[in-house]
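Encode chain A's predicted structure.
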Amino acid sequence: MAFDSKTRAAGTCTQCGSVFAVRQSDGGAIEPIGVRRCSCGGSSFDVLESEPTDPCAASD
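Encoded structure for chain A:
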């Protein structure tokens, strides 16, 4: 039996945009950590994507 590894990330509810800590499996499934559904009733989440930032980069 093979196990998916899971990555923790920030995610948003696709219905209302509330932000949650989520786990994303290698298979692509996204589940919120600590709750089953959003307070709006939504059960579908997207992972927030962000580019790594360089703390030494000059800001404009």
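The chain has no helices and four strands.
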